[in-house]
Design goal:
Structural class: alpha/beta
CATH architecture of the largest domain: 3-Layer(aba) Sandwich
CATH topology of the largest domain: Rossmann fold
CATH superfamily of the largest domain: Nitrogenase molybdenum iron protein domain
Radius of gyration: 27 Å
Number of strands: 13
CATH class of the largest domain: Alpha Beta
Largest sheet: 6 strands, mixed
Order of helices and strands: HEEEHHEHEHEHEHHEEHEEHEHHEHHH
Helix content: 40-55%
Shape: globular
Number of helices: 15
Strand content: 5-15%
């Protein structure tokens, strides 16, 4: 033991002597930084000392954010609270998250007093919630990251931000590649068409309170982009410059008299709505009804027209409906199986048992 101690002292003295003579010391390995800095949809720079482990999704219109977050496997462990609104988010999330029943749920109008007790490391909000909720959370030193998810470009950008937030940028790139491959397929198929494609009217049907109404989406919303991406010309685009669904009457619909009509319905099966419209003498004067070119926008648990991850299925279906001659071999049920398998990691048997039976609208 004594000889070992003397040898150790000699070694230390030699090291000091070499250092004094100008020798370059060996670099000591340091631990990689764990901080995170990202830029959100409002161009805000948000910095974290460590990757967030407790994530809460709050605010209105958060369904698309919930379903997009679940494209990443880390969500199951890190999402601790989310909004449950009119659309039954649990009907889908329970299929991809075995711990769904352990998540805390919030109402769409939940404020800081309901969110803060969840002790979030970050709260995810849609951009339009910045004034009504985001600033109040930031005043409590709760970090907020905003998302748009309203156009394909915004969607890809926001998915990349989620990849940073969850520390899985490779998954974000994989998601983008999946979507881009399907967009490229549609783009290449319709590239040779002459003109601007069929004139198309996409309308949302609602009968809230017994009052039937038809609405068109804003020009900047995803529904409009979906029609254009699929090779159609949205007839309502110039008239829909507001910030939300706008009511249109039948006189305006008749004036547009488009080649094709696409009906969205969030409360009832859009296929049944279409059947009722076809039987309505008033609607029978429209050329789309006369030619049978009126279709119910499909969906499963949720409609495919929304800025939910399913929007890529919506674009694919629209392209097939508008240009059946270009997509004769495309099987939407197979597209659906591939989507849920690759994007959510769902077994084919689960998709066939839980998703395909829920399909509604004029899928085929």
């Amino acid at each position: 033991m004594k000889h070992c101690s003397l040898a150790l002292v000699a070694t230390l003295l030699l090291s000091l002597l070499l250092g004094a003579c100008g020798s370059t010391p060996t670099a000591v390995p340091t631990e990689a930084p764990t901080g995170l800095t990202l830029t959100d949809a409002l161009s805000r720079t948000v910095t974290f000392d460590a990757p967030p482990q407790r994530i809460v999704i709050a605010g209105k219109s958060s369904l698309t954010l919930v379903d997009t977050l679940y494209l990443f496997p880390e969500t199951q462990e890190r999402l601790v609270g989310l909004v449950v609104g009119q659309q039954p988010v649990g009907d889908f999330v329970s299929l991809v998250d075995s711990a769904w029943d352990q998540k805390m749920t919030l109402a769409p109008d939940a404020g800081p007093e309901q969110i803060a007790p969840l002790q979030p490391d970050v709260v995810l909000l849609r951009s339009f919630m910045a004034d009504s909720l985001g600033r109040a959370l930031e005043e409590l030193d709760i970090p907020v990251v905003y998302f748009d998810l309203e156009t394909p470009e915004q969607y890809f950008r926001d998915v990349a931000v989620l990849g940073q937030l969850l520390g899985n940028t490779a998954r974000a790139e994989m998601i983008r590649d999946f979507y881009q491959a399907r967009l490229d397929r549609v783009k290449q198929a319709v590239a040779g068409l002459s003109g601007e494609g069929p004139s198309v009217l996409l309308i949302q049907y609602s009968d809230q309170g017994g009052e039937v109404a038809f609405n068109v989406p804003p020009a900047a919303w995803l529904q409009t982009s979906e029609v254009e991406l699929a090779g159609g010309a949205p007839v309502w685009k110039e008239a829909a410059l507001g910030g939300g669904w706008a009511v249109v009457n039948f006189e305006q619909i008749a004036a547009w008299d488009p080649d094709q009509i696409i009906v969205v319905s969030y409360k009832t099966d859009s296929a049944q709505v279409v059947a009722n419209l076809k039987a309505d003498p008033q609607w029978q004067i429209l050329q789309a009804v006369q030619s049978g070119a009126i279709y119910g926008f499909p969906g499963d648990i949720f409609s495919w027209d929304q800025p939910d991850p399913r929007w890529i299925l919506g674009v694919t279906w629209l392209a097939r409906r508008m240009h059946p001659e270009l997509f004769a071999g495309l099987d939407m049920q197979q597209e659906t199986v591939e989507f849920f398998s690759q994007m959510y990691g769902m077994d084919k048997a689960v998709v066939e048992a839980s998703i395909l039976p829920a399909l509604k609208g004029n899928v085929e």
